[in-house]
Each structure stands twice: as structure tokens, then as C-alpha cells.
Protein 1
Amino acid sequence: MKKKNESLKNTGLFLAFAGPAVFAFLAVVIIPFLYGFYLTFTSWDGLSKSKPFVGLANYAAVFRDTGFWHALGLTLVYVVVCVVLVNVVAFLLALLVTGKLRGKNFFRAGFFVPNLIGGIVLGYIWQFIFKTILVYIGKNAGIGFLSKSMLSSPVPAFIALVIVTVWQLSGYMMLIYIAGLTSVSADLREAAKIDGCTESQVTRHIVVPLMRSSFTICLFLTITRCFMVYDLNLALTEGGPFGSTVMAAMYVYDKAFVTKAYGQGQTEAVILFLFTAIIAVSQAVINKRKEVEA
Amino acid sequence: MSERNVESGKIKPFIRTLVAIVLFLFYMFPFFMIVLNSFKDKRDITKLPLSFGGKKGMTIDNYITAFERMDFLNVFKNSFIVTGVSVCLIILFSSMCAYIFVRKAWKINQLLFLLMLFSMVIPFQVVMIPLISIYGGVFKVLNHRATLIFMHLGFSVSMAVFMYHGFIKGSIPLALEEAAHIDGAGPFRTYFEIVFPLLKPTTATLVILYALSLWNDYLLPSLILTDKKLYTLPVAMALFQGTYSNQMDLLLAGLVMSVIPIIILYVALQKYIIAGVVAGAVKS
């Protein structure tokens, strides 16, 4: 009797404390996630009541869907270029603002500003820069490639996306690198300098190996963010010109909500997810192994 | 050798400062340009985008018109309600959940915690389509603010629970709670009067992280809300851009207005925001 009372009390305690959070979590993340796998075996147009079971037809369709593979390939190029540039720029910014510099905090705060604003608004702001400001400068200064909007041809439009991404994310990653750089103790740096290392040698041989975990975090964050880019893609180029800058997330969105092929869209979303997860996780595992401690 | 001399000389700090200023100007350039042009007449924007004022001088008419046509006050209110309520619920329910997960080593708690950890790698795009087909197709509850808030809660709990979990486990001594228990306080009183106030550092981090990300969120609200009266800022901005794509004057004023609330908040709470963002990134 006492035991039964106890378990009843525990159930009550569980429901009161964990109930709301767990319910929302299951209802919004886990159930749709599992249901999503089921959806990949059905065909649904988003309107009709029935969702006919089609077996592996969606997977076969995805296989033949060259548009999807093109978008995924483009996303991959975008991810590689952005991840490299964002992290290089962010690391250099971090070095810049952790060294001897007046008004460090002011600069730090400034470089971070682009991160405060969502991709939609940033995309529109840069659209104005690319379409009006740069074209005006290009025409007046006689810079040929700028005198026409970068967003009106495929390769420059892609470069524009990269520029805005680097501009946006580098300040964020900079903060993480700053945290890493300042965590390396002054004693260690001092010791290396006494042994005859120059400033740049200290950075390269002492500081960088010790802050490898910052690199792991930054790479993970940039990889996952860039793979899933949507807002910026939509606001800056809308996938144009002529659909040349449609990234994977936008392709999936259009497949489901514009073409109304929900089953196939979901199948592509799952493939995109597996792709991202494998790359992001293996990066983290490889980097973790190389981490050293002071 | 000469390289080292330059490095240690007086030139280096000067170059450093110069580089920092140039980069800073580059980072601020887009914001500067939209603010500058948002006060100009439509024709001046295309003809003289770099000048202060145009042939017609400066005007705030753009702001007045954009404010009305965007229904800015209402849109701002919507964003404020959705973000505010969501953040409060995330804080309340996640901290309670993490607390019971840490203090009671029940099987179900361990299982759910693992599930939450795993779920943190799931991007929104993977659950987006099933989410709409369940809540739109089966339950038909789209286009309600409450639905959006509920979903923000669901998507945010795993990381919030994870962060509270780490903090409670590491820095909240059990002795305090035992003392409260002996004094006759029940689990709720113990939690709200003793434990929750001690969670402040994590709470501050999470409030900042989620206030920013929910305020800026576009994809989820754009899928859930179809009634213009319920639109949040990013969704309204997207509609505004679509409607007035030829009216740069209005568009720029609209953009400046959507940026300003965040900038004001940032200037006021800069230190906390930066600390919060770093803590959030490093812990997850």
C-alpha cells in the first residue's frame, strides 16, 4: 500500500515538473520526426485526405531528381567555401581584438552586430547594397563587374551569398575564438617567449593546439548553419537568377509547399539531414581526438 | 630580424588600429547605407545613393508611410507577445524538467534526457513537412498564436533542459534542498523559492539566446501564420518587400524600423548578450 502511494506520488511529481516540457518536445519534435520517416513512403499533395502508400517510389524519384542533386551539390560548394572563409576571418578578427588594441570591446561588439539580425532582414539590406549602392559605385568609378547587379548573374549571385554569410557569421565565431584564445594561460605564453618564440610562433605552436575545442565548436556550428541556409537564400537571391542559387533547404521547401509533393520533399529533407549529420559529427569526432590539454 | 623589429615597434599598434577601423567600417557599411537612404526621396536613392540628403533634402515621410502600411505597431506587438510568452514558458518548463531529471534517477528521466540530447542534431527542415501535415492536415490548428508558441516551446526545450541539467548537476548543492525539506517545504516551494533563484546565470543566457532567435525566426511563423493580423516582424517584412519592391524609400524605412528594436536592446545589454551567446554556443 505504501509502495503504491509512493509510485503515485512520483508519477504526480514527474507530470508536474517534466510534463509540459516533455509533452511539447514529443509533440513538436519526436512525433513529427518519426512521422516524417513514414511520410517518405507515402505520396501526399497536402490537400487530399488520403496519403497513399507508395513504398520506395519517393526514394527512386529523388534518385532521378537532378534538380535536387544539383541543389545539394551547390550547397556542398557553398558550405566548403563559407566554412573555410568564416573561420579564417573569424580567427583573424579574434587575434586582432585580443591583441594590443584600444577600444577592443567596441570593435568586438561591432563585428558581432550582423548576428543579431535575422537572415530575412539581412538579405533585404544586402539586396539594396548589391542592386543599388554597388552598381552606382561601379558605374561612377568605372568598375566593369560592378556596373551590373551581382545578383543578376549566377556566379556573382553565388559569391554575393558567400560574402553576406561570411559577414554575418564571422562575428559570432570570433566570439568563440576569443573565448578560446583568452583561456590559454599567460604563464604558458610567457614561458614560450622566454624560450625564444616570436609572437606568431607562440600563436601557432602553443595557443592554437590548446584551443582546438574552439575550432571543433566553430566548425560544427558553421557546417550545420550553412547546410541549412534558407532565410538568407530566400531574401537575397530568391534562388535566382533563373534558379541558379537554389540551395538544398530551399529546394526541399519548394518541393513540398510549392510543387505540393510532400512525400518526395520529406524524403529529400531526410537525405539532406543524414548528409549534414554525417559530415558535422565526423568532423567533431576527428577534431575531438586531436584535442590536447595543457 | 627586421620583421621582428617592425612587430615590436610603434608601427604595429597603429596598423592594428587602422585595420580594425577599416574592418569595422566594412561591417557597418550596409547599416549605414540603409539608414542614410531611408531619409531620401525615391529618385534620390537611385541617383545619389551615397550623398547625405538628395536634391529634395531629407524627409521622414518614408517612415510615416512605412509605419502605417506595415501596420508596424501591430506587427511589433505580435512579435513581442510570441517571443515574450515563448521565452517565459521555455524558462519555466525547461528548468523544472531539468530539475526533476537531475534529482530523480528514474529510468524514464534518463531515457527522455538521452532522447533530448539526440534530438538536438535534428534540423528544423526535417520536421517541417510532417509538422505542417500533422498540425495543419490532422488537427487544423494553424494560424493561431498559441500554436506557434507551443512549437517554439517544443523546439527549444531540449537545449534548454540540457543547459539547466548541466548547471543544476554542477552547482546546486543538494544540502539546501534537504534543509528545506526538513523545514517542511514541499517540492514546489523548494523548487521555486530555493532552486530557481539560484539558476539565474543559466536563465539569463537562455533568455538572451531565445529572445534573439525567436524574434528573428522566419520559417516557422511563415508556415504557421496565414492571417496578416498575426504576422511577426520577419514575416511582415517579407510581405512588405514583396508588395513594395519598387518603392525603395518605403522598403528602407521598413528595414531600419525592423532593425532598430534589436539594436537598442543590444546597446543596453551588450555585455550580457555577448556573454550569453558565447555560453550558449560553448555548452551546446
Note: Chain A has a mean pLDDT of 88.
Protein 2
Amino acid sequence: MHFVFDIINGNKVDNSYSKNWFRQEDYWAIILGFSFLLTGIFFFYFVPYSQITHTKETLDAIILEEKEIPFVTVQQYEAREKLKNLSSSNTTAGKLFGFLLNTPKYWEINPIRSLYQTSNTTFETIEEGQKQLTDLYNKAQELQHEADLLGYQNQALNKEASEVSLLWNRKRESYNKALKKAHGAEYNLFNSLPLLAIFLSLILAIGAQFLGYGFKKFIVGFSAIFIIAVLSLMLGEQESLNYMGFGYAIWAIAIGLIISNTIGTFSWIKPAAQTEYYIKIGLVLLGAEILFGKILSIGLPGLFVAWIVTPVVLVVTFWFGQKILKITSKSLNITISADMSVCGVSAAIAAAAASKATKEELTMAVGLSMVFTSVMMVVMPAFINFLGMPEVLGGAWIGGTLDSTGAVVAAGAFMGNTALQVAATIKMIQNMLIGVIAFFIAYYFASKAEGKKSFKMAPAELWNRFPKFVLGFAGASIIFSLLYYLEGPVLGDAFIDQGIVRGFTKNLREWFFCFAFVSIGLSVNFKSLRAQFVGGKPLFLYVAGQILNLLLTLLMAWVMFYVVFPEIAEKL
Amino acid sequence: MTTGKFKKLLMYFFALCLTMPMLVMLHRQLPGYKQFSATVKDKDIDVNALFYSDEPHTASSQKYIRSKLKEEHE
């Protein structure tokens, strides 16, 4: 503030203060992160607002109007489907951002498939499907009209109309699914990737200039970071590696490590290998994905499984690491504890940034999480099926214990449909905890002076030590949670979850995290990484914490879904 | 770039190329792998999704659960 007053009063500006202000990644993470978020709000919320709210009102009116009819009509099915798929990412701007931020796709043998593919659905197939649907639609309409003329008193006619409508709906669902798969498979990243590289390098170079990395030097180095990031994303999408749970994070680190430990990171790349810069922007964007309105999605049992067990496991594991294993680095301890108890790699990134952990410590946590998740996501559902555990209990157990969301969904799906729904929802609720945990970790590490147990810190000192990007992270979460809450579940999903988040911020965040992991790999050497693992303490910490997590989550899930709220388990 | 460094790079590259197929093979030996991979393929799941927003199934799951709990109220 002094800096602003000095400018207003025409005084000589305290140069060191102003320099410091603009030379901190935290502030640039907030400035750039919020610039992206405001762009998202403008294109995904304000611009399509009237169009989407009007569509919703029209669809609601159709559903309400047809409620008097004793069976579900084709119009009702259509309206329900449209309401379910209402999203601001289907607008022109949304599609444009979707095209620009596209990441490499799934491939099996030919890596080009990851970047380029045309639709394999023939025009005749589409036409044939459409004709069948139109015939069924007309038949359903005719029957409904006849039933209407008889005042819906003819039960046999009502039944027939209902069956034809249902058949039309099923056929339409599978037709749309096939069409989406065929059209979704059409992409050409050779067009979008150069545009994205230029767009991001120019925006990031502005901050880089103030941070002292140099505008031109950053752009030159960023080209290499971007290429390695694309390669990592491609490798993470290869079928066999993907099924193993080895995503882009591990590849980005591995490629970077191989380069830096063999030929060495070229000096022209170094100005753009700025791990903290990318991580902090990515985390501010991640804040927008933490929507507190979602935490009661599965009622109180879900909240207990995800929001009570997780912090308990986190604190106990951290304590175990400090007191029993005597891990010297608190930041390594908290990064592994958060990674294991909350949601894997994303929690590790947030905890590492909040506790100012080293790159080696984050690499260690990410590696541990990926290896254990890779095994657990296959073995755990097989074990649960072998035990014959109910799907709700098994799903809740998986959702609360497996690290990454993708692994949770895959393991849940392995068990069955109910397990998939429960596991994915529990994990989503647990994901929301990441913001609160990052805030407390940042506060804890800022308020504790190294080596002193009870150090009373002055507010100014605390403010100086507090990682400011966490405020951007929390601020984004509060703003987006409020928007989500104010719009209610349907419009909230349309504008925020399916709109800004899934259509814009999550893709952007994925790119930033990937750049961060590439930068980590390029600046870490094997010796320092090996030093982190001495004595195997990080492994012991992860295993001990995971055992506690497995036991406590299972106990809490059983108590909540089968003792306290059995009616919820019955309904699911 | 010196020859020594280049050799080292090739060595690491080949080591990675040998290690990964071995890890993939080991992973495929895990109990339940066949069913797991079939489910992942069939349901089109992104196993590597880091956050709920990276995986499309989380949105439908939330809606499914919401509708089930709503039924309970009705």
C-alpha cells in the first residue's frame, strides 16, 4: 500500500518494496490465474447467461406441462436429456477454448493418433440411425395423440405409447453415444498446439519479465518446455501405460530427469524451467474447481467418510513421520501425508507449494503415489469382490482411500455401477478438502519458525512468510463456490462445473501442472533425489499412513452407511 | 554435446525402454487385471485423472446420487 500512496503523493517510490512486490511468483500466479478465471467467467457465464437460463425455463415448462400425462412422453425424455446436458461449454466461445486447450488423446500403437484423427463413422450409418429414430419418434407421437384424444383412459393404449417412447429414448441414447464417440474422436492437434504454445508463451512471458527471467529468453526456453510437455502428455495417453496409472506427471519428470542428468539442461531452457511459477498459477486455477456446494452430494455419510477420516489420517500420519520415523524434513512429511490421505498428485502439489517443499520432495511424493495407486486400483476392487462386500461399502472404501480420481472411478467401475457412483462421488467430496488443507498447511508452515516449537509470530511477520498464492487459491474457490451456490444445482452445473471448470480451467490447469513437472525434471539430479529416500522412511510413512487410511475409512463407511444412515445405502 | 553425454542419454533411454515393458507385464499379472482393463476400456475411463473435473464420470455420478437421494425425499 505504501507503494501506491507514494505514487499518488508524487513521492519517490521505495524501489526495493515495489521491486519485491512484482518479483514474487505468488503475486503473478494470482494476477495471471485470475486473468484466466475472469476470462472464463466472461465467456462461460456472462455471455451465454440469458440463452442458457431461457433454455432451462423452456425445458422446465415442457417437463411441468407433460407431468399430467400418465406416462413419460418423448418430449419429456428429450427435455430431461437437454436439461442434463445443459452447459456453457457448448457455446461458440466454449468450443473455441475447447479446441485451443485440447491435450493429446488416447492411442495404442501409432503415436500420431494422439494428435490427429478423423471420424470413422460413415454418412450412411448416421443417416440410417437418424431414420430409425425419426420413425420411432413419429410412432410415439401418434400413439400419444390417440391416447390424448381418449383422455388417457385407455390403459392398453397408454402402455403401448409408454413402451414406444421408452424404446425411442433407449435408441436415442445409444445413437447419441455412438455419434459422440465418432465425432469426439475427430481432432487435429497439429492446428491447436502451435496456437496454444504462442498464446501461453506470450502471456507467461509478461510475468516472466517482471520476475526477472527475461521476456525473450522465457519465450525461447518455453518452446522446449512445451514440446516436452506434449511428449509427456502423449506418453501418459498410451494404452498400456495409461492402464498402469502412469500419467503425464511421471513422464514429464522422467523425461526432464533424463535430459538434466545426461546431456544437462541447456542454458537457453533454464529461464523457462520455473516450477513454482507454473505450479502456483495451476493451483489458483484449481481453486475454481473446489466447489463447496458439492460436499453434501451424498449426504452426511459421504461427508463423514471424506471430511472426517481424511484430516485425521493426515494429522496422525504427519505426527507418525515426525515422532516415530523422525523424518527431518517437515515439508517432505506433510507432502507425502497429504498425497496419501487426500487425493494423490494434486494434493501433493498443493501441499508441497503451501509448505515450500523442495522439487525432490514433491517428486518423491508423486512417485510413491503413482506406484501404490497403480497396484491398489487393480488389487483392491478384486479383493472387495472376493470378499463379497456390498457395493456401497466397497465404493465408499475405494473413494476414500485410493489416491487419484481416475483410479477411483476405474476401481469403482470394476466392482459395479453403484460402487462406481458412490466411489466417484466420495472422491469428489474429498477433492474439495484440498483447499482447506492447503490453507492450514500454509498457515502452519508460515507460523512455525524452523527449530522452534512454540514461536509466537507477529502478524506482519506471519504475512511475510505466508505463501500469498494460497489466498488466490482460496479466493477462486470462494468466488466459484458462491456462483455455483447462487445458480442452484442445474444452472450451477451448466455454468460452473460443466462450463468454466470442465470446459476451460481444468484443461488450462493440466497444461500448467505438466509444465511444472517438466521443470522439476529438468532441475533435479538423481543424487539429491536418492538422498531423499535414504533409510526408506518416505516409503514407511506412505505404507503406514495408507494402512491407517484403509482401516479408518472402512470403519467409518460401515458405521455411516450401515449403522447410522442405513436408509441411504438402501436407496443407492 | 560431448560423446560421453550422448552415450549416457542413449543408455538412460534404452534403460527406460526396457523397464517400462517389464513394469507393464508385471502390472498385467496382478489379480483382476483382465477384468479391470476390460472395464476401463468399456466405460472409457481416464485412469490418470488427477482431480474430479478431469474424469467425466464424476459429473454423472453426482447427478445419479442426487436423483437417488431426491427419490428418497419424494
Note: The CA atoms of residues 60 and 321 of chain A lie 54 Å apart.
